[in-house]
Amino acid sequence: MKQAILVTAYKDIDRLKILTDLFDDDFSFYIHIDKKSSIAKEEIELLENAKNVHFISREYNVNWSGFNHTKCILLLSKEALKDKRIKYIHLISGQDYPIKSCQEIKDLLVKKNGAEFLAHFELPTKNWPASNGGLNRVDYFHLYNLLNVKTKMGSKINSAFVKIQKKLHLKRNREHLPKLYGGWSWWTLSYPCLKYVIDYTEKNPLFFKRFEYTAMACEMYFQTIIMNSPFKKNVINNDLRYIVFNEGNPNPNILDESDYEGIVSSDAIFARKIVYPASKKLIEKINSHILNNFNKGY
Question: Residue 81 sits in a domain of what CATH number?
């Protein structure tokens, strides 16, 4: 079964090359590297020459929570859909790692052929209490695409901007949006389902534009389109990703050796967040006991 892996990354290109080498010829990689990343031309060329890397772009500057991340995903999706042999498409970050062998991934998707793996919930949701169940993300203009809100100054500016809108009762109009759904950024979708998302985007430019100043649009864009589509009946509420969050922290934990037993017992096919050197021993165990690739990896 031919599959595509879409990757959004901003650093550690050498380890991204190792990641691509873990997959056989049935998997094609489509990669976006943050435009503002300081990565040497030689590193990019090394990645370009990898046997299963079909496309690399540096089209967008990507800020955390900014809409450009969604644009990256849509760009990579369009490229992958050009290959009509592809049956399934996986979206991962540059800090993800496979925790099932290539054959296990193929077997799963043959068995579940036609299913869409997408974590989702209706908005408003108790999962996002800090943003009024997620509605504040779409009800007010956010400057994430323009500012690095991971800096103290960027965060203060965006917070002040949202507070001014609330004080002046300047809510954005949601009247023409379909029922909103949220979830997590990463998914595994069939070719027809992803093509539906791209076709919907092209036919509904106002829908696309409406998400321009939305916070963390990548956690709502695909869910909202798919859960209001004929593909809704095929969706399994599971993104097949092993991710650990601490309560109150929007960022996933960095995984280490202590997470190995949880990974082994999960049905996930990718784990995140993998960061060197904290995840080094975990990767060695995954390579040795799951992937049978002990000489590869971080």
Answer: 3.90.550
Buried-exposed string 230-239: b where 16+ CB fall within 10 A, e elsewhere: ebeebbeeeb
- Total count of domains within the chain: 1
| Residues 223, 122 contacting (CB under 8 angstroms) | no
Q: In which domain, by residue range, is 281 found?
A: 3-122+185-212+235-291
Report strand pairing: 120-122 vs 181-183: antiparallel
Q: Alpha-carbon distance 209 to 204, whole Å?
A: 9
Any domain includes 189: yes
How far lies 224's CA from each of 121, 180, 215, 218, in Å?
A: 10, 5, 14, 10
User: Each residue of 97-128: pLDDT tens digit?
Assistant: 999 999 999 999 999 999 999 999 999 999 89
